[in-house]
């Protein structure tokens, strides 16, 4: 057989040689990322990453991408996407105020019963001019609204009890693997079917106005907790730091040293959320002119509310868009844990375990292998959670191509602009570009989301750093921010 001689035009030959000789830009990016890792001397820290082009799914960079990492609040990405997929963005929480009695001559003769669905938005945050600054909001605004609606129904007095039905959720109130020494703080608040002010109270410690030994403390709302104040003021050589410890249900001990130059604000968790809800609602009703003769009472989990309950008013929360935006922008743990329970298919007695099962089914359904994750909670507080960079990027790719993808982009913190990225990625190519979820626990820093390259091509990425003690790096998150800036500077060339 004779071989035919093929003539290649000179111009085409030059083009082939040129392309073959061009540097591999993804290889150059890998070298740049490795240089960042070397610069920060990670030591025994463990780093993993995956970066893909969303246009075609091509992997641009990967390192330890199939290995397990503690995700910290990157777990909220999983919860958010699962909630958007299963519940839909139009989902709203519904709270019902009803009664087993009748209204006679301005008196509600019977109990006033509040039936909750887990709404986490009743409180100060959404009534603040800036919902990232919950301390500027009015926690009682919605309760006053309810009071006026009840008065419009002719109710000036309740002869029975104020009753809480929080049976939509079953225990436990906190996730598996949460650290015991975190439970006093607001970010570790318990989860309930009735939730007021994110089940937290604001601790305000003003600077001294005269020479005093012990700092004064103010709790908002007052009466939410009993405080044992062992605080002192920090001297010139002292590092201000406050420790809070739960001594008993509803009792928190405060130790440490506080600043003298400005007011310090802390969020404390309130135990027994349904009782907290009722006490504050009763206080508001009384101040609004509605007398409650009876006490407060919580319906046990195993008790069903009578079907004959007469509805007096119904309150709907903002839709899931608002809930997810707050959850992701400020990394609000209670919102994530609430959604995890809501995902349970049960009508009553929803649990973390059943919600986690729904999340597992969802992840497998979008192509994540069964051994690609361990789901322990919805917020990432638990160190029992395990995710891989592969899993997070698969999740991000799926969400991006879904109908709620554009909304998710709006919910994520923006580098150097807002949320948990407000003070990060400033004066770099990632500023006002990266849209990503942060993740922070002791020795854990993670960052996963989306970013646009210099060519305007969008990438999905997951950067995960575990076992990174602060003595090795002044700011562990700076490693991730520098890599994000490299991704934003990337060009195909």
Task: Provide a brief overview of the structure.
The protein is an alpha+beta fold. It has helices spanning 10-21, 25-39, 75-86, 141-152, 273-287, 320-329, 333-342, 352-365, 389-400, 405-411, 477-489; strands spanning 46-53, 59-63, 94-99, 102-104, 107-109, 112-115, 157-158, 162-165, 200-205, 218-220, 226-233, 241-248, 251-258, 264-269, 291-292, 296-298, 310-316, 373-374, 386-387, 435-441, 444-452, 458-466.
Description:
- The chain contains eleven helices and 22 strands.
- It starts with 9 loop residues before the first helix and ends with a helix.
- The radius of gyration is 27 Å and the shape is globular.
- Helices cover 27% and strands 23% of the residues.
- Mean pLDDT is 92; it is low at 1-23.
- The longest helix has 15 residues, at 25-39.
- It has 493 residues and is α+β, with helices and mostly antiparallel strands.
- Strands 2-1-22-21-20 form a five-stranded antiparallel beta sheet, with helices on both faces.
- A hairpin with a 2-residue loop joins strand 20 and strand 21 (444-452).
- The chain has two domains: 24-88 and 321-489, 3-Layer(aba) Sandwich (Beta-lactamase), CATH 3.40.710; 94-318, D-tyrosyl-trna(Tyr) Deacylase, Chain: A.
Blueprint (SSEs and pairs):
Layout lengths: L9 H12 L3 H15 L6 E8 L5 E5 L11 H12 L7 E6 L2 E3 L2 E3 L2 E4 L25 H12 L4 E2 L3 E4 L34 E6 L12 E3 L5 E8 L7 E8 L2 E8 L5 E6 L3 H15 L3 E2 L3 E3 L11 E7 L3 H10 L3 H10 L9 H14 L7 E2 L11 E2 L1 H12 L4 H7 L23 E7 L2 E9 L5 E9 L10 H13 L4
Helix pairs in contact: 2-11, 3-6, 3-7, 3-8, 6-7, 6-10, 7-8
Key traits:
493 residues; disordered N terminus; 5-stranded mixed sheet; Beta-lactamase; D-tyrosyl-trna(Tyr) Deacylase, Chain: A; alpha+beta; 5-stranded antiparallel sheet
């Amino acid at each position: 057989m004779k071989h035919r001689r093929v003539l290649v035009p000179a111009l085409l030959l030059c083009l082939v040689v040129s392309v073959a000789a061009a540097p591999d830009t993804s290889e150059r990016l890998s070298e740049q990322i490795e240089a960042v890792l070397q610069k920060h001397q990670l030591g025994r820290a463990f780093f993993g990453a995956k970066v893909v082009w969303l246009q075609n799914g091509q992997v641009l960079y990967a390192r330890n991408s199939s290995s397990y990492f503690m995700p910290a609040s990157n777990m909220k990405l999983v919860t958010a996407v699962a909630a958007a997929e299963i519940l839909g963005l139009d989902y709203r929480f519904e709270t019902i105020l009803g009664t087993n009695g009748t209204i006679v001559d301005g008196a509600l003769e019977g109990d006033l019963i509040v039936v909750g669905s887990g709404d986490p938005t009743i409180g100060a945050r959404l009534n603040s001019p800036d919902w990232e600054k919950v301390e500027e909001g009015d926690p009682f605004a919605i309760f006053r609204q309810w009071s006026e609606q009840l008065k419009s129904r002719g109710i000036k007095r309740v002869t029975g009890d104020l009753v809480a039905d929080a049976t939509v959720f079953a225990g436990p109130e906190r996730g598996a693997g949460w650290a015991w020494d975190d439970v006093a703080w607001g970010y570790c608040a318990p989860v309930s079917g009735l939730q007021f002010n994110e089940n937290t109270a604001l601790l305000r410690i003003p600077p001294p106005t005269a020479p005093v030994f012990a700092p004064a403390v103010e709790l908002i709302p007052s009466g939410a907790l009993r405080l044992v104040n062992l605080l002192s003021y920090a001297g010139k050589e002292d590092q201000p730091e406050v420790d809070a410890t739960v001594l008993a249900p509803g009792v928190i001990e405060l130790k440490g040293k506080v600043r003298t130059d400005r007011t310090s604000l802390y969020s404390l968790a309130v135990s027994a959320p349904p009782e907290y809800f009722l006490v504050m609602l009763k206080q508001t009703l009384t101040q609004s002119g509605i007398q409650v003769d009876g006490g407060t009472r919580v319906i046990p989990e195993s008790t069903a509310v009578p079907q004959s309950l007469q509805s007096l008013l119904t309150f709907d929360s903002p839709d899931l868009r608002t809930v997810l935006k707050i959850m992701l922008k400020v990394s609000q743990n209670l919102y994530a844990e609430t959604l995890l329970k809501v995902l349970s298919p049960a009508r009553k007695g929803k649990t973390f375990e059943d919600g986690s099962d729904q999340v597992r089914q969802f992840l497998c359904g979008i192509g994540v292998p069964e051994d690609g994750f361990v789901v322990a909670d919805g917020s990432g507080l638990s160190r029992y959670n395990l995710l891989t960079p592969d899993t997070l990027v698969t999740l991000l790719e799926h969400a991006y191509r879904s109908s709620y993808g554009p909304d998710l982009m709006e919910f994520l913190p923006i580098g150097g602009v807002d949320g948990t990225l407000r003070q990060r990625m400033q004066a770099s190519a990632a500023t006002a570009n990266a849209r990503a979820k942060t993740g922070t626990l002791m020795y854990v820093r993670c960052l996963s989301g989306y970013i646009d390259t210099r060519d305007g091509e969008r990438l999905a990425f997951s950067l995960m750093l575990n076992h990174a003690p602060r003595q090795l790096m002044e700011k562990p998150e700076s490693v991730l921010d520098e890599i994000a800036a490299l991704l934003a500077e990337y060009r195909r060339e």
